[in-house]
From TrEMBL:
This is Glutamine-dependent NAD(+) synthetase. L-glutamine binds at residues 124, 181, 187. Deamido-NAD(+) binds at residues 371, 400, 536. NCBIfam families: nadE, PRK13981.1. GO terms for biological process: NAD+ biosynthetic process.
């Protein structure tokens, strides 16, 4: 009989930050040892951060990462933690071919005690590992106090065969998987069902340790867990926060003891939090402390400003109202109310004088005159960004990006786009959720997220409202000409978003869309708009991926696309 206390170290790492990542591993290992853990498990590519992309191809980086693993093993021994088994991810090298490996190593007794290389290298969606890494070829079983622990890395449990099938015949007591599994809505259930199948396959409990935090346009949601051999959930860590949880394996028990199980999040809370964490970590890892954006009074800019306030505090948000001759009083009031609600800096920069100056020389009309207004606003936003050292954030949503309704070099300017993977109808849903959360006491910065693991409720919101109700309820309009509404040139968003979801996320072609019941005119209009806007989307800023198919990472059309069937 063997009892092994595992520490599940769900941490936020940064790509390339070897010293910082190693320091975090050392800190969490100290804490785990103080709580009598025997094995502490960290995420995929812990020391290097993930995904490292072409950094893996740089020999000097691989050598520095390997040196860091050895230094960390020695540091653990020096601090009296030599008996701890520390499972971390890093990059390795095949010395015959000089190709990198996605590697798991175990630090123990002052040395790199064991290693395992990832077998299945994903080459779909957001992943490009097949091009970068060499595949591992052997399964590994660790002997810890007489218990047999199989190991795997992320994709190795998603594919049939390979190391899991090999481990099924090696009488293991537990399967330990380290993961860098990016967030997308609905994926939590998919992971859990997969883990149950693999636990049944190896006839042993499965530990699923996942990364947390944002890295560029990916968000890692954590949500680490343990399932017993019969598929029962016996541990679950919280989503979107760093966490150190514990679970004890008892090899004498047929059914393992249940420990802490964090509650599931409301689906709207989950998506909203993912967007905020993506922005928060993008800023932190690129050393931005504040943001600037145009506040039009519309729902998109209101939701982005709310997310920014939750990410870095309202005092670090610089909102700019840039009214034109077509801006309604209601929109100007809504923008001011939003800024007041979140405690943002708020400036008014009318664009009519600038517009007239341009028109005096260019004399534009139609769409060119409309886009000129957006581009003047883009110049102002970037001027604030440059002069104040702020991250400019774009406010376009997925419906706009899909149809090309985001002005290139205008409202598309910025370094990050927090809602670029949210359809317009989803924007409204999340705005309503954020107000509901505000009414329930979730203040500005009060999300349960990396950096707020203590659960600070945040700065209170006056009257329990964050986003002005008028911004949510009014008909959307770019206000670039008198009486303009989005529905003048687009189907109503409730219909448009259904067509977009089918066309983009389910890859339905024209015949499929007609079979889905959409009318021919709508289908042809939407397909034409989406296909013609690819060149714009290629130039749009990064933003957090929260759906199965996000523009940029997952879905790219040829810029010249003549296929219409």
């Amino acid at each position: 009989m063997t009892q092994i206390r595992f520490a599940l170290a769900q941490i936020d790492t940064c790509v390339g930050a070897l010293d910082d990542n190693a320091a975090k591993v050392l800190d969490y290992s100290r804490r785990a040892a103080a709580d009598d853990a025997r094995v502490v498990v960290f995420p995929e590519m812990t020391l290097t951060g993930y995904p490292i992309e072409d950094l893996a191809l740089r020999r000097t980086f691989r050598q520095a990462a390997w040196d860091k693993a050895n230094e960390l093993a020695a540091a653990l021994k020096k601090e009296g933690l030599r008996d701890l088994y520390v499972v971390v991810g890093t990059v390795g090298t095949d010395h015959e071919t000089s190709k990198p490996y996605n590697r798991l190593v175990v630090l123990h007794d002052g040395v790199v005690w064991a290693g395992y290389d990832k077998h299945f290298l994903p080459n779909y969606g957001v992943f490009d590992e097949f091009r970068i890494f060499k595949a591992g070829e052997r399964s590994v079983v660790l002997d810890v106090d007489g218990a047999r622990l199989g190991v795997a890395i992320c994709e190795d449990i998603w594919q049939d065969g390979g190391p899991v099938s090999e481990l099924a015949g090696r009488d293991i007591d537990a399967l330990v998987t380290i993961n860098g599994s990016p967030y997308e809505e609905g994926k939590t259930d998919v992971r859990f069902e997969l883990a149950k199948r693999r636990a049944a396959e190896v006839e042993a409990p499965l530990i699923y340790l996942n990364q947390v935090g944002g890295q560029d346009d990916l968000v890692f949601d954590g949500g680490s867990f343990v399932v017993d051999a019969d598929g029962e959930l016996v541990e679950r860590s919280p989503m979107f926060m760093e966490d150190l949880s514990y679970w004890t394996l008892d090899t004498a028990k047929v059914r393992q003891t249940r420990t802490t199980v964090a509650p599931m999040l409301d689906p709207d809370e989950e998506v909203y939090t993912a967007c905020v964490l993506g922005l928060k970590d993008y800023m932190a890892k690129n050393r931005f402390t504040g943001v600037t954006l145009g506040l039009s009074g519309g729902i998109d800019s209101a939701l982005v400003a709310a997310m920014a306030a939750d990410a870095v505090g309202g005092g670090n948000v610089h909102g700019i109202s840039m009214p034109s001759m077509y801006s309604s009083d209601g929109s100007k009031d809504d923008a001011a109310d939003l800024a007041a609600n979140i405690g943002a800096h708020y400036d008014v920069q009318p664009i009519e004088p600038l517009f007239k100056a341009f028109q005096g020389q260019l004399d534009l009309d139609g769409v060119a005159a409309e886009n000129l207004q957006a581009r003047i606003r883009g110049v102002i936003v970037m001027a604030y960004s440059n002069s104040k050292g702020l991250l400019a954030v774009a406010t376009g949503n997925k419906s706009e990006l899909a149809c090309g309704y985001s002005t290139i070099y205008g409202d598309a300017v910025g370094g990050y786009a927090p809602i670029k993977d949210l359809l317009k109808t989803r924007v409204w849903e999340l705005a309503r959720w954020r107000n509901k959360a505000a009414a329930a006491g979730v203040g500005i910065g009060g999300l349960k997220i990396v950096g707020n693991e203590a659960g600070n409720p945040g700065a209170p919101l006056k009257d329990g409202v964050m986003i002005p109700v008028a911004s949510i309820e009014k008909a959307p309009s770019a206000e670039l000409r008198p009486g303009q509404k989005d529905s003048d040139s687009l189907p109503e968003y409730e219909l448009l978003d259904k067509v977009l979801a089918a066309y983009i996320e389910h890859a339905h072609g024209r015949a499929d869309l007609l079979a889905d019941g959409f009318d021919e005119k709508t289908v042809d209009t939407v397909m034409r708009l989406v296909d013609r806007a690819e060149w714009k989307r290629r130039q749009y800023p990064l933003g957090p991926k929260v759906t199965a198919l996000a523009f940029g990472r997952d879905r790219r059309l040829p810029i010249t696309n003549a296929f219409r069937e």
